[in-house]
């Protein structure tokens, strides 16, 4: 299965970087989901939750963000946010 290369960056530095099967984010006009092969897009983000499902398995990674933007081109996803706070996994 094809994967995405993802970089999530906040004003104070890199939040997460790696390969992923899926990225979901709170776009200005609704939730956006990105899979490999997605058409190029540039979207403003509203406050909400960014979720990454890592490639090769592993637990989903989640952050609460206050806004920013998301760019997708050639299976490269870049998420730039003002601030990101990790969301604790369910059950903790």
What would you note in describing this structure?
By secondary structure, the chain is an all-beta fold. It has one domain (4-86): ATP Synthase, domain 1 (Sandwich), CATH 2.60.15. It contains no helices and 9 strands. It has strands at residues 4-10, 13-27, 30-35, 41-45, 48-54, 61-65, 68-73, 76-81, 84-86. Strands 1, 2, 3, 4, 5, 6, 7, 8 and 9 form a 9-stranded mixed beta sheet that branches. A hairpin with a 2-residue loop joins strand 2 (13-27) and strand 3 (30-35). It is globular and about 30 Å long. The termini are far apart. It is a peripheral membrane protein. It holds the Pfam family ATP-synt_DE_N. F-type ATPases have 2 components, CF(1) - the catalytic core - and CF(0) - the membrane proton channel. CF(1) has five subunits: alpha(3), beta(3), gamma(1), delta(1), epsilon(1). CF(0) has three main subunits: a, b and c.
Structure in a nutshell:
Keywords: ATP synthesis, Cell membrane, CF(1), Hydrogen ion transport, Ion transport, Membrane, Transport. It is built from no helices and 9 strands. 0% of the residues lie in helices and 65% in strands.
Q: DSSP strand (E) fraction? A: over 45%
Identify the CATH class: Mainly Beta
> What is the level-2 CATH architecture name?
Sandwich
Query: Could you tell me the mean pLDDT?
Result: 94
Q: And the CATH topology?
A: ATP Synthase, domain 1
Question: How many structural domains in the coordinates?
Answer: 1
Helix-strand topology string: EEEEEEEEE
Total strand segments: 9
The 3D shape can be described as: globular
Subunit structure: F-type ATPases have 2 components, CF(1) - the catalytic core - and CF(0) - the membrane proton channel. CF(1) has five subunits: alpha(3), beta(3), gamma(1), delta(1), epsilon(1). CF(0) has three main subunits: a, b and c.
Domain ATP synthase F1 complex delta/epsilon subunit N-terminal: 4-84
Keywords: ATP synthesis, Cell membrane, CF(1), Hydrogen ion transport, Ion transport, Membrane, Transport
Subcellular location: Cell membrane
């Amino acid at each position: 299965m094809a994967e995405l290369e993802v970089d999530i960056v906040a004003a104070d530095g890199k939040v997460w970087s790696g390969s992923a099967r899926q990225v979901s984010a709170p776009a200005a006009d609704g939730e956006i989901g990105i899979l490999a092969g997605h058409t190029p897009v540039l979207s403003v983000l509203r406050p909400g939750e960014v979720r990454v499902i890592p490639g090769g398995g592993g637990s989903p990674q989640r952050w609460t963000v206050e806004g920013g933007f998301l760019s997708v081109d050639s299976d490269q996803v870049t998420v730039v946010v003002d601030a990101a706070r990790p969301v604790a996994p369910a059950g903790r």
